[in-house]
Each structure stands twice: as structure tokens, then as C-alpha cells.
């Protein structure tokens, strides 16, 4: 492949932490280049994210040069040739050129080398196989420039071989396509993913979780997810049905409301109809405690939020809190089908922007003063009073609050009669 492209508008190659790393590692017979996603993103003129660097220098030489320059080095993956250099609080993974000698998932055996072509050919996708040197020259040994221009995500070499090296690449294929591709996924890659799908069972839940949550918020997530469902690729991940219609509807609702994409909320639309679904998905993906609670809340009787009047919606918002209310409401909207009143759903969804729930004004002291001793009965009295306060539409005036407290006490007195 020819090296005909020069990366324009890349000041980070001339000054700053990345330029310092390149300068440190170039010279005295060694060469360093920025590789992978940073090159892809720079060519697409989108934010870079992490900047990874490949070098002909062996790890020991990288560490020696860093020490001489007073730069912190951390041997984060020394057996695979990776040393992390930290400059101005920015970490840079620096990896010696290599090729796989044996491949079995993430534990491939590698041999260090000096061949930039062989190093590019061992990567996953052509658009991730590009490198750029300190002068801004783009080196393309795998056809990545053409695929970036076409917005096409394509495996390097034989797709099934790339997948067998690490089955997570099945999920990465769809996630990268959703983020950077257009149209249908590359046919050869798609068929290879389907043919290798049994390998998904060997992946750790933690790695699957990370890829799936990234996929959920990618720009082209709806199309990529639909292709995965058609290829039978989500059943082994979720262990249940994937709902592409509600997933698309959730994306549309978020956009209509100007909400940032939320991975757990979208995951709920895709995989959760009832709380049992939420528990299963959370367990299979090893979601965090916070993610599990959010997913479980979404699945809990979401159908009760359909057709609420605003008074009922205020009570739901008070009980659930803003985030839980919005997530559950959007799931109800997403699962309602296309024949409902979108304006009414928007009114309910934007309630937190128009109304803030007040704090329950009655305190334990109000009931202790009325003869309720501390203990379980006091908690019961407060709960009953709070229910009555909600039913009365959150009054804050003293007469209304006194009436609620007195009525609660009267109920307790009535219940105590033999």
C-alpha cells in the first residue's frame, strides 16, 4: 500500500505530550508511530481518545529512554511488549512491534520485530491498521484509507482467522461499524461473525459488558443491533429475546427530548420486558450494582406509567426520583408502539423539567407529640401520612398538614380498638 496521505491539522504531533513521546522514541536506529484508533479518528476529524504508540524499540529500551528523560514508565503489559509512559498526567501505551506466534484469545504469544507491515497485518480492522509518523505521514499497509473514505469496517486478512484470535472481535465488529461505518456491515465480516458465534461463550462477562455498553450509545447502534439479531448473535449474550423495535424507539425518544444517549437505558429497551429479564441480563453481563439497580427499576411495572395524568405522574416522580422516573417512563414509551400520542409522552417525560418534588414536611416529632412512641409504629405512621400527603397533591400549608397528621392518628386509634 502507498503512503500518499499526510495528516493535516494535527498539532498534537508537533507539540504536547504525544509529540514528546514520539521524539523520545525516534532516533538512534529506532522509529515510533501513533497507531490504531487515534489515527482513524484524526482522519475522520473526530476527538482522538487514547493515543497509542508503536515502536521498533524493545520494552527495556523504552524504559531506559523514559528514565533518562525523567518520564514515569509502568510495565503494564511487558510480556506483550507494552509499557505505559505518563507525561503531564497523560498515559500513553507504547508497544513494541510484534507478530503473533500462537493465538488463543487474549493470551496470544508474540514475537517482537521491526516490520511495520507485519505489525499492521495482525490488527483487527483495516481502519485500525493505520499508523502516522512524527511528520504526519500516514502509513497504510492494509487498505485502511480506502475503507475510511467508504466508511466501511472490514477485517484485515481472513475474517474468521482474525475472530478466532479473539472472539471479542465479533462484538467489536458491530460496535466499530455502528460508530464509524455506514450502510450494511461488510458481508464477509458479517458471515464470519455468524459462523464463529459459538466462540462468544468463551468470553468473560466483563469484556462483553464493556463492548455492549459502548455499542448501545454508538451513532449507528440501531442498524448494528438489528444485524446482530438477524445473525443470532444476541441470544447467546442475553440468554433471551432482544427487542429491536423498542430499542429503535428509545433512541428516537432520547433524540426527540435532547437527552444524551444512556447505555443502560438503551440496554433496558433492548433486553428488558419484566424485572426477571433485568436480573438475567445483569447477571450475564456482570453489570455494576448501580447499573443493575437502574435496569431492575426500568423493568418494574413500566406499563403502569402509560396514560397517567399529571397528578399521578408527580407521585411517580416523587417515589422514583428523576433518573428512575425518566428511565422507566421512556421504556414505557418505547414499548407502547407507534400508535400512541407522542405529545402526551413528551409532556410526561419532561415533567422533571417543570416540577421539582418537595420534601415530605411532616416529621417524627409531629407524631410523637400526638402520642405515637418511637419504634415500628412511628415508622408506620410516617408512611401512612406520606401516602395521604401524596394523595392530597403535596400540600404544604399548615392546616392541610395538621389534618393529615390528625387523620393518621385517628386511623391508628381506630385500628387499636379491640
How would you portray this structure in words?
This protein has 418 residues and is an alpha+beta fold. It is 51% helix and 10% strand. It has 22 helices and ten strands. Strands 1-10-9-2-3-6-5-4 form an eight-stranded mixed β-sheet. Strand 5 and strand 6 (90-96) form a beta hairpin. Helix 21 (376-391) crosses helix 22 (398-415). 38% of the residues are buried.
What percent of the residues sit in helical stretches (DSSP H or I)? 40-55%
Q: Strand arrangement, largest sheet?
A: 1-10-9-2-3-6-5-4
**Poorly predicted runs:** none
Number of continuous helical runs: 22
Domains, number: 4
Please describe the biggest sheet, giving its number of strands, its sense, and whether it closes into a barrel.
8 strands, mixed
CATH first level of the largest domain: which class? Alpha Beta
Would you give the CATH topology of the largest domain? Beta Polymerase, domain 2
What gyration radius follows from the Cα positions, in whole Å? Answer: 28 Å
- Strand percentage, roughly? 5-15%
How many angstroms separate the termini?
Answer: 93 Å
CATH superfamily name of the largest domain?
Beta Polymerase, domain 2
**Main structural class:** alpha+beta
Number of strands: 10
Amino acid at each position: 500500500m502507498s503512503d500518499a496521505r499526510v495528516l493535516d491539522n494535527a498539532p498534537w504531533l508537533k507539540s504536547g505530550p504525544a509529540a514528546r513521546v514520539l521524539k523520545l522514541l525516534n532516533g538512534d536506529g529506532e522509529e515510533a508511530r501513533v497507531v490504531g484508533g487515534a489515527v482513524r479518528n484524526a482522519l475522520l476529524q473526530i476527538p482522538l481518545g487514547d493515543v497509542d504508540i508503536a515502536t521498533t524499540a524493545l520494552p527495556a529500551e523504552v524504559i531506559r529512554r523514559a528514565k533518562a528523560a525523567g518520564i514515569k514508565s509502568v510495565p503494564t503489559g511487558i510480556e506483550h511488549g507494552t509499557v505505559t509512559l505518563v507525561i503531564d498526567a497523560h498515559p500513553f501505551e507504547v508497544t513494541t512491534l510484534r507478530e503473533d506466534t500462537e493465538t488463543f484469545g487474549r493470551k496470544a504469544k508474540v514475537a517482537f520485530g521491526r516490520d511495520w507491515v507485519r505489525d499492521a497485518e495482525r490488527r483487527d480492522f483495516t481502519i485500525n491498521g493505520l499508523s502516522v509518523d512524527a511528520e504526519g505521514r500516514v502509513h497504510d499497509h492494509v487498505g485502511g484509507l480506502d475503507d475510511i473514505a467508504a466508511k466501511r469496517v472490514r477485517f484485515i486478512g481472513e475474517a474468521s482467522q482474525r475472530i478466532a484470535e479473539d472472539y471479542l472481535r465479533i462484538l467489536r465488529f458491530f460496535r466499530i461499524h455502528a460508530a464509524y461505518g455506514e450502510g450494511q456491515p461488510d458481508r464477509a465480516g458479517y458471515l464470519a461473525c455468524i459462523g464463529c458465534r459459538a466462540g462468544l461463550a468463551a468470553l468473560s462477562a466483563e469484556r462483553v459488558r464493556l463492548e455492549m455498553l459502548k455499542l448501545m450509545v454508538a451513532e449507528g447502534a440501531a442498524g448494528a443491533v438489528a444485524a446482530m439479531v438477524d445473525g443470532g448473535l444476541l441470544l447467546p449474550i442475553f440468554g433471551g429475546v432482544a427487542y429491536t423495535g423498542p430499542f429503535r424507539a428509545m433512541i428516537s425518544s432520547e433524540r426527540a427530548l435532547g437527552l444524551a444517549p444512556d447505555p443502560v437505558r438503551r440496554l433496558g429497551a433492548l433486553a428488558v420486558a419484566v424485572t426477571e429479564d433485568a436480573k438475567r441480563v445483569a447477571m450475564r453481563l456482570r453489570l455494576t450494582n448501580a447499573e443493575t439497580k437502574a435496569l431492575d427499576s426500568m423493568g418494574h411495572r413500566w406499563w403502569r406509567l402509560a396514560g397517567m395524568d399529571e397528578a399521578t405522574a408527580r407521585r411517580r416522580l416523587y417515589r422514583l426520583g428523576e433518573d428512575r422516573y425518566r428511565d422507566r417512563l421512556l421504556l414505557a414509551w418505547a414499548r407502547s408502539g407507534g400508535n400512541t400520542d407522542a405529545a402526551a409522552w413528551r409532556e410526561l417525560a419532561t415533567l422533571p423539567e417543570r416540577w421539582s418534588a418537595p420534601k415530605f414536611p411532616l416529621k417524627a416529632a409531629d407524631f410523637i407529640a400526638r402520642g405515637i412512641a418511637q419504634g415500628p409504629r412511628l415508622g408506620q405512621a410516617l408512611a401512612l401520612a406520606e401516602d395521604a400527603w401524596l394523595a392530597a397533591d403535596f400540600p404544604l400549608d399548615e392546616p392541610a398538614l395538621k389534618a393529615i397528621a390528625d387523620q393518621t392518628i385517628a386511623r391508628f386509634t381506630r385500628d387499636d380498638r379491640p
